[in-house]
Design brief:
The chain is an alpha/beta fold. The protein has helices at 21-27, 34-44, 58-64, 83-89, 116-127, 137-145, 192-196, 200-211, 221-227, 238-248, 253-263, 270-276, and strands at residues 4-7, 49-52, 67-71, 96-99, 132-134, 151-153, 180-183, 214-216, 264-265, 282-285.
């Protein structure tokens, strides 16, 4: 029976099976949100399938797979260069499907400075695919400017996956402020301008701390290391501690540590993540712009 390869991070991670936080952080692609669309694609592809890593041997895939599926995110941006992946895909003779590709552009400028290696990668996929799935109309237009027109707007693949079963909603909703889950976005706290400059994201961290609301952590290295039992890997020197206090508006380290221990939430298993949402009446976040 034909076998499909899925190029992706692992579907879930056992944090306590790893020796260092750096391993855990890399396995989730430096953001646990990657687990959402990865799992969605895994569960939507029928039949025999296997995980393929990002350093695959093209000759071996040509021999044993009938197709390669690539779950994607905001890859059309100025930061990441997919030259290495382009080199591999260009050697594939099997069909390749790219699902959920997005362009990240805070200004809607219409011009995204995409590295040449990433352009080569998308073109190589387009030549091996009936259509590329993208997250929005803006991404379709960005690809059109590159001469790539076999494109379909589908949104994120996670939109099509039922991560949990919902009960019928009550006739009258009762949204309680204290039963909220807050989600902002940053990576390491070591980037001082984030802590020292007003922004919507910083406001969310500060509101969560001030109101003692639960906060969802997906890419924040220091908090995630502490919560997953790798505190020794968090690199918490005096400067970093001070930046964390500034980000959250906390008065001292003991108070902040008590808050994050009690209210920080991080998940490395999508099923566990979905079950945990039952505890909340709402989730509040300010997402980056993926179009």
């Amino acid at each position: 029976m034909p076998r499909t390869g899925i190029l992706s991070i692992v579907p879930k991670v056992e944090a306590d099976s790893l020796a260092r936080f750096g391993q855990l952080y890399e396995l989730v692609g430096k953001n646990t949100g990657n687990l959402l669309f990865t799992n969605a694609v895994w569960n939507q592809i029928a039949g025999p399938k296997e995980r393929v890593n990002f350093t695959f041997d093209p000759d071996k895939l040509n021999e044993r797979l009938s197709a390669l599926v690539i779950p994607a995110a905001n890859w059309l941006g100025p930061v990441v260069d997919f030259s290495n992946l382009a080199n591999l895909v260009e050697q594939l003779k099997i069909p390749v499907t790219l699902i959920g590709l997005g362009a990240q552009d805070d200004t809607y400028s219409g011009t995204v400075n995409i590295p040449e290696g990433t352009i080569r990668f998308v073109r190589a996929v387009a030549e091996r695919s009936h259509s590329i799935s993208v997250r929005g109309e803006y991404t379709r237009r960005v690809l059109s400017k590159l001469g790539i027109n076999n494109v379909t707007v589908t949104g994120c693949p996670s939109l099509y996956h039922n991560f949990r079963t919902f009960s019928p909603p009550p006739e009258r909703l009762n949204i309680r402020f204290r039963r909220g889950l807050i989600h902002a976005t940053r990576f390491s706290a070591s980037y001082a301008p984030f802590a020292q400059t007003e922004s919507v994201h910083r406001q969310l961290y500060r509101m969560a701390y001030a109101e003692k609301l639960d906060i969802l952590l997906q890419s924040e290295t220091e908090e995630m290391a502490l919560l997953s039992g790798f505190g020794e890997d968090a690199g918490l020197d005096s400067r970093l501690k001070q930046l964390l206090l500034q980000s959250y508006g906390a008065p001292n380290w003991e108070d902040w540590l008590g808050y994050i221990s009690a209210h920080g939430r991080v998940f490395f298993d999508v099923a566990e993540w979905a079950r945990a949402l039952d505890a909340y009446d709402y989730a509040l976040e300010h997402a980056c712009m993926v179009l």
